Amino acid sequence: xxxxxxxxxxxxxxxxxxxxxxxxxxxxxxxxxxxxxxxxxxxxxxxxxxxxxxxxxxxxxxxxxxxxxxxxxxxxxxxxxxxxxxxxxxxxxxxxxxxxxxxxxxxxxxxxxxxxxxxxxxxxxxxxxxxxxxxxxxxxxxxxxxxxxxxxxxxxxxxxxxxxxxxxxxxxxxxxxxxxxxxxxxxxxxxxxxxxxxxxxxxxxxxxxxxxxxxxxxxxxxxxxxxxxxxxxxxxxxxxxxxxxxxxxxxxxxxxxxxxxxxxxxxxxxxxxxxxxxxxxxxxxxxxxxxxxxxxxxxxxxxxxxxxxxxxxxxxxxxxxxxxxxxxxxxxxxxxxxxxxxxxxxxxxxxxxxxxxxxxxxxxxxxxxxxxxxxxxxxxxxxxxxxxxxxxxxxxxxxxxxxxxxxxxxxxxxxxxxxxxxxxxxxxxxxxxxxxxxxxxxxxxxxxxxxxxxxx
Length: 456
Description:
Blueprint: E1 2-3, E2 9-13, E3 16-20, E4 28-36, E5 40-50, H1 76-95, E6 117-123, H2 130-134, E7 144-149, E8 152-158, H3 168-182, E9 197-204, E10 210-216, H4 221-237, E11 243-248, E12 262-266, E13 270-274, E14 277-281, H5 291-305, E15 312-316, H6 322-327, E16 333-338, H7 341-353, E17 359-363, H8 366-369, H9 372-378, E18 383-386, H10 395-404, E19 408-413, H11 416-426, E20 430-438, E21 448-455
Parallel strand pairs: 3-5, 10-11, 15-16, 15-18, 16-17, 18-19
Antiparallel strand pairs: 1-2, 2-3, 4-5, 6-7, 6-9, 7-8, 9-10, 11-12, 13-14, 19-21, 20-21
Helix pairs in contact: 1-11
């Protein structure tokens, strides 16, 4: 048995590869096939005969139901061993390029309560576990707040305690839930789109600040009054909240990027801090969700960039400019490009807050922005740092990077498979000099990987 990239264990029966969630190599189990294709099948374990010695006891009461943190059954040392293997397998098997020795993965010092952001969903359809269904458990209260069940868009698992974010997150969520139960607030029906309470987002930060965003559907005046009473209760119960915000969402989807954010109490932002740099984080801002590991990731990227103070650096997919601003002290100039205009506005604000005058930011689709004309206008970069989404880089972007011929490329990736594909395309001009995996998300199969390429 082995572990696949999706966090499922792999079993083989003759030539058939079978993917099984929630088991680990060494478990002896009976399997029930759920889905079968020509060369692989998906199954679930229906009976355990023998447990693997490489198995940990899950610490979360919601393990196996909520769909997150699937690797809790693996000791952390085993998790990072498989993540290291995942990076090596992808780069060698998909990339098919010459590689140096891959550095040992940087594990996360925190394996619990490490996230700085969580989003919870309200629903009037509480998910009943198979155990609860078997026991015919009847709940007086079928409203729930927690996480969506995978594959059931309108059902929510009621979360009592989540181990991902500081416990203040659990206390706030449960207090809002109890207040809503006591005062008979309606929870959204995601099929009929009826009900008031929709979502809540909690953001914590390394500076000790705390943001809470409550999202609701309001169609009548008296509902607004009720909603503000709830917000006042939250403000009174949790004086540590520095930014209490609310959003009215009367649409059929949960996206908030196109909606106005209102301040109920405090500021409309919080700050993250890194090496004395302050980063403004608003309700819609993207920021790496594991603050401590983000710092380690950015330090690796900066070290790989090998900056002396004379370089022109392009930071592609710059987001809110965190990496660009982080490396700016060691560069002559940094140019950040990102397709989300709001993120670029945040990046400019962050540069201003930190008195960074050598960073420029541009918004636009990467393949349209990063052109030969752009490079002719702004100068040929000495270093390109790129941190694309999971899908990797568009062919046009890779072509322009090859045209630009920077001395070094630092490729940060959250998907070693698409990274390996892109490295193969860059291989005609660039040689991989160093590889450093970084674990950002303990108990999941996700891994970040930083690769240094140098011009041949």
